[in-house]
Amino acid sequence: MLRRSHTCGELREASIGQTVRLNGWVNAYRGHGTGLVFIDLRDRFGVTQVVFDGASLPPDTLNTADHLRNEDVIAVEGRVRARVGGENPKLPTGKIEIEVTALEVLNKTANPPFLPDDTASGGKLANEELRLRYRYLDLRRPSMQKALATRHKVYQVTRRYFDENGFLEIETPILYKSTPEGAREFLVPSRHVAGSWYALPQSPQLFKQILMVAGCDRYMQICRCFRDEDPRADRQAEFTQIDLEMSFVRRDDVVAMMEGFVRRLWKEMTGFDVPPIQRMSYREAMERFGIDRPDTRYALEITDISDLAAKSDVAFFKEALAKGTDRPKFNSLRGVVKAIRVPGGAEKLTRKMTDGYNEFVRGFGAGGCAVVKVNAAGEFETGIAKFLAPVKDELKAALSLQPGDTVLFVADTYAVCTKALGELRQVVARDMGVVPKPGSEGGPWNFLIVLDFPMFEKNKETGKWVAMHHPFTAPRDDQAEAFVAADVNDEVTIESIVSAGYDIVLNGQEIAGGSVRIHDPRVQSKVFTLLGLTPEQAKEKFSFLLEALQFGAPPHAGIAFGLDRLVMNFLGTSNIRDVIAFPKTQTGQDLMTGAPGPVTDEQLKDVHAKAIRPG
RNA sequence: GGGGCGGUAGCUCAAUUGGUUAGAGUACCGGACUGUCGAUCCGGUGGUUGCGGGUUCGAGUCCCGUCCGCCUCGCCA
Q1: Cα A348 to chain centroid, rounded
Q2: pTM (predicted TM-score)
Q3: What value of ipTM does the predicted structure carry?
C-alpha cells in the first residue's frame, strides 16, 4: 500500500516540487475521461485536488481513475505543483494540486445511500433517520468531524483546568445501586444474586461525596449518566457530565472555581473573554423572568400589576385576584395579574400571533392572555382597553409604556402566571426577533449564576415537600440554624429557607448545577423528616452515604456541567444528536446497531429474568 | 401517556377538487469530452407512494388502525 506522507489538509505552496503520497476518500470526481481526471481527495484533515493527466500516465491508470466514484478509498503518489487551471479560494489547499504518478485503489465502495457532503448538490442533508442508520457515513461530513473535534477539545481543556487546580480524575461505577427517587433508572439484572438488580447511575452524586469522605479533596470525572426519561432536542437518556466535588469549601469557593472554568473554557474554545458573571437570586429570576434560568440577552421583563388591576374594570383580573392570599411566596395560590411590555409590539405582533399566545398560556393552565396596544396617541387599543381606563395613566407609568408598545396580561394564581408568562416571554422574544443568534459567531454569551433556591417545594399532586435539588443539599450557611429550629408544619418558614445550591445559566439554558452538601447530621435528619422519610427509611435508601458521613466527613460541595450542552453551544447547534457520536432516537433506539434488541431465553435465565412480551 | 408535523425512485422533493402511464433534480450505469473545482453534454436503469384495512367506478390524495422519525407537554431529585 502507498502509505501517506501527508494528510489531505496540510499541503501548501511551500511543498511545491515535493513528491508526496496521500490516502483518503474520493470526495468528488470531475472527469474528462480521454485525457484528464480530477479527484478531490478527502480525509479528516481536509481536501486536496489530485490530477490524473493522460499525457503522462499509463492508459490503464487513467481508465481506473476515470471510474473512481464518491467514497472510494484510494492512495496516490505524485508531485505537488501550483494549480495549472487556477486557484480554488474555497479550499485551504486551493493553490496546489497533486500531479499523480501512481494510483492504488484501496477499497471500492458500494453505492452509498447518501453522500457525506455538507454542501451536497440540492443543498439538503438526507433525513436524520437515514443519517443515524448509516452513522459512519454521516460522521464523515466535515461539520460532524468538526463536532467530534470540538468535543475532544472540550475534554482536553477540562482535564487541564481541573488538573491544574488539584483535582483527581476518578472513575465511579456504572453498575450501581438503585436509588428510586429522581429520574427513572435503567436496570441491569444480576447473575450472581438472583432477583437483584443494578441500576445505571443518574449521576455519580453519592460516590463523589464518598470520595470527599475518603480524603480525595478534589474529584472530577467526565462521566456518562443515564436517565430513562423522554428526550428533548437538548436531552438524551444517555448523556455526559463534567462532574466535580471539593472538600473544605463553601458555596462561593465552588462558584469561583466554576467561573474560572467557564472563563478558561470559553477563552480556549472561542477566544471570548467571559466577563465577571452576574449573580441573581431564584426569587428575582422568577419575579422578573418567570423562570429559574432566565435568558437575559433581552428584556421583556414581567411586571406584577396586581394593585392596579384591582382598580381596573377588567372582570377576569378581579376574578383572579379573588383566588386567595393564603401564602406569600413560591408555589402560591395567591391571585395576581402580571404583564409584559413588548416595545414595538403593536406593529410586529400580528393578531394571529397574539391569538396564538392566548392558546399558548392556556397550555400552562392560565385562562388566557389579554392584549392591549398603545397607539401613536398613547391611548390603549383593542381588547380590554376600555376596561383599563380607570388605571390608564398609572399603568403607563408602571410599565414605562411608549406609543407602539403592546402589553400582554395574564391573570391567575402566582404560580400559573409566573410559569405562563415566563414561557410566553421566550416565544415573544423569538417573534420579535430580539434573540441574538447563539453560537460562537456573532451572538453574545450571556452567563448568569442563579443562587438562593428554595430548599423545598410542594409537589402539586401529593402536597408533600420535595427537595428542589436533592436531599443532600445544604441550606445556605446563614439559614442552617433557622432551618433546624423551624417547625415542620410552618409552611411559610419552610418555604422561605434557601439552599446553598447554584446553577449556571447560559443564554437561558442551564449548563451546570450544584450545591454545598449537608455534613451536619441535625440538618440531614431534618431534611429527611420534611421529605417524609423516617430514619429507618432514610437509612434503607442511603445507608452507605449516611454511614460514611459519620466518619469524619469534611465540609464539601460540588457541581456538574452538562458537557453535551457545552459542546452544542460551541457549535451553535440546538440538536444534541449533533454532538454525540452515536446518539439514540426519541424512543431510545440506536438505528445503526438496532439496540435495544431481543436476547435469548438462555441469557434471561442466566440473570434470573423473564421477558413479558406484549401480545 | 397527551398534542403537533412528517414518511412518494438510492437521496432531496413535486404530483390541481379523488381521475388516464406517479414526475423533476441528483446519485447510479453506458457514451462523449485535456483544466475542472456543484464540470459539461447525450442516453439509460430505477416506484409494494412506511405497513394493514376501509370508502369509491377510481386513492399518493379521503377515513380507521399501526410502525418509524422529529418537535413539544407531562417527565428529567
Answers
A1: 30
A2: 0.93
A3: 0.93
